[in-house]
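hiii, so i know i said id send this last week but things got crazy w the move. better late than never?? heres the sequnce for the chain we talked about at the cafe, plus the structure i predicted for it. fair warning i was half asleep when i ran it
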Amino acid sequence: MISRRHFTVALPLAATLPTMTLAATAPTEDDLLWLEDVQGERALAWVRARNAETEAVLEKQPGFAATRARIRSILDSRDRIPAVVRRGAWLYNLWQDEHNPRGLWRRTTLDEYRKREPAWQTVLDVDALGRAEGVNWTWAGAIALGPDYRRCLVKLSRGGADAHVVREFDIETRRFVDGGFELPEAKSEVEWVNADELLVATDFGPGALTDSGYPRVVKRWRRGTPLSAAKTVFEGEKTDVAAGMSVDHTPGYERTVFARSVDFYRSEMFLLQGERLLRIDKPADAELGFWKSRVLITLRSDWTVAGRSWPSGSLLVADAAAFLRGERVFDALFTPTATRSLAGMATTRDTLLVEILDNVAGRIEEWRQADGRWQRREVAAPFPGTLSVAALHDPELADDPLADAYLLQYTDFLTPDTLSLGRVGSDAREVLKSRPAFYDAAGMRVEQRFAKSRDGTRVPYFVVWPRAAKADGANPTLLYGYGGFEVSMQPYYSGVVGSSWLAQGGVYVLANIRGGGEFGPAWHQAAVGANRQKAYDDFAAVAEDLIATRVTSPRHLGIQGGSNGGLLVGAVMVQRPELFNAVVCQVPLLDMKRYTKLLAGASWMAEYGDPDDPAQWAFISRYSPYQNVRREQKMPHVLFVTSTRDDRVHPGHARKMAERMRQQGHPVMYWENIEGGHGGAADNAQRAQMTALEYAFLRLQLGR
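okay and structure toks below
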């Protein structure tokens, strides 16, 4: 889930089971570095051997084949809600199923989309393209040029990696453009300037990338000229996370903005004015965006300016021209409270739609200016659960019939997603699509509870109970967490979790620990850097509360997390092994001594710290799983899951941790998908296999 770099996923036991703080005593020389050789023959032989061992055990578990088939049918279901992006008169969607595992990029109209069986036009068949070219292409997105949206820049990834190629494509002829724009494989960013020019940030050769492996240089590239002739227009520093750009084509408000991501949370932005760059004066960790004549700013830190103070987590709006002149007159459209935080926003022609988390449940507000004043309207929508909005307005169209329209999606743990078409100023909505129920939720129930962490902080978590379950300490229970990068864990409906776990008698728990964004920037910042241990204390506190209230017991309690969540469960597994009997550790960071030297790891130093700085390694070393796992500890059973093609979090983390634990005699299983990228799988067949292995492992370890 670690991805955000663009400018644009238990009281009584707390006293008796204190959190263990461990000091690193691993060898100074890492004898397992050979497992970091991603495609090395020795490393891949090790991977194949571990995969075979794991599959030999888990595929023989009762019901494995049926579980895998059921998961695949859910993932391939034609009754899923097709996620759409509007471009002019069309709604675009990427569709994957058993016949199109890599996907059909297709389009339809809104009138057709309203129908149960819309008529879709196939724009690009990714599977057919891969067969024709002999490459395992996966879809990585497309950037279209308005207002006619005929030409687009298609991104294609080999096996699901973040790195991708870029090719110019003609949507009307359904063909790649002969002699058109084309970029080789890299972690590129591209934007249309006009029909004949692009802004390109890519790997231009030596010195063009940051220490994090992302583009440092932005160039302007004209059609018909070689990329080598492109003119440099912006540069970041080698120590930055990345340099990038955005181009706004809204008539009358055309703007080009360049940015340096100084770290994961701080940026410098520059507005192109003629041939010169104007530095935009904003707080370094604030996010800023333009909306026609206005500027929108979201704060991560308190800000005192022009005699006013604005708290962290606020959303401010100002006149863009006045702001660029240096005036600092704002209206606050949202200010946080102890339980309410800003979750997102979308813009129609004249209205700002604001997503709010209220005790980790979604609400929507509309804000619009009338008679010189900003006016607020709360949207009547389902509650409590998760709400998200997507505006349909196309600002490049002079007379847009959908200027005030938006899509509203609602879900919760037991309610399948519903997608509705709404218009600002009204609570009347048209239901466009509803996902079917993939399991019988009758008799199931959801609770929100609070655990007390080691420092006294109240930590919320959700418990989803299967039917007829009792608090007898014997329920197989899966606790999931993330706790990083200001990412919120919200209620969601999962046919896979419901059918493979809840319907089989398992309890599912979602923890809202510090490090996430559930209660705004302060909730995140409380567990950053030297305070990282607080996230692990929170997660352990939830586990303790589940045990103390007899939801489950250590024999029946398992934990799961991916990416930063993989680090979470790895650290808590090592610190508090007595609490758990199963750990599913997915695409994880685990070797925090070397994480900055592996792939995109350097981009996350603002979250974890710099292990090469002795003062910072002093606190990182206390929780880094790879350095702290011990032979003499009794560890829970663990399943590591990763991908060879993950070019964000290096698979060496999982490989080395698994081998270290094997050498120490701990019960370890390991499975690595040869494709998949950071998501672990490239298509639904791979996702079904991976997920079925995980549930077979959990049932084996946690069953009654």
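btw The two ends are 32 Å apart (CA to CA). thought thatd interest u
miss u guys!!
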